[in-house]
Amino acid sequence: MRSKKLIWAAGALAWLAAWSLVSAGPVEAGSMKAQVFITQAKLPSGLSEKSLIGFARTNHQKLLHETTTDPVKERKWLATMVISFSRPVDDMEFTVLFYDIHDGPRRFVDDMSTMVNKKTEKTFVQKLTLDRPKFKPNRNMELVVTVKREEVGRLKFGVLGQEIKRSGEVSFSDAETGAKKK
Q: What is the DSSP string of 37-59?
């Protein structure tokens, strides 16, 4: 009887130890989160970290409008991205990945790495320039923030702009078609 209790106690202890190791992994790995905001409004200077996050939250835009000063093929989307991590990054860089999600599954478009100057900082401000032809107008996009290859934040947004107009008219010369003159 005593050996059965000892075996049961050893089994329970082993199960508890294994469970604590398994459960500690994802909790520790997933403890960092990031809030991401995009705005096309001009950021006021001299804001505290809390005020900056508040400004970004209230001026956050889900749809970005393209510049209109350039010809259509050369237009781009300009914005400012504010990322607030739940704790310091504790790495030399973090990466922002851009995906086109308009037609269903994610299609990778571009990435952007940001180097971290102070490992104690939690909030970062980054200028964004989304250029054509990588980024296409009137599409749904997803921005994903990763630290040490782990996804810590994401944001869905849209890019609005003028499509390149095509006339739909095609003309060929006689030399191109190989037609004989009569």
A: EEE-SPPPTT--HHHHHHHHHHT
Q: At 16, which helix (H) or strand (E)?
A: helix 2-29
pTM score, whole prediction: 0.72
* Contacts of 71 by beta carbon, 8 Å cutoff, 6+ apart: none
CA separation for the pair 16, 103 (Å, rounded): 46
DSSP H helices, 30-123, are 49-58
**Ordered strands of the 139-147 beta sheet:** 63-65, 150-160, 139-147, 93-100, 107-115
Model pLDDT, residue 98: 95
**DSSP secondary-structure letter at 73?**
G
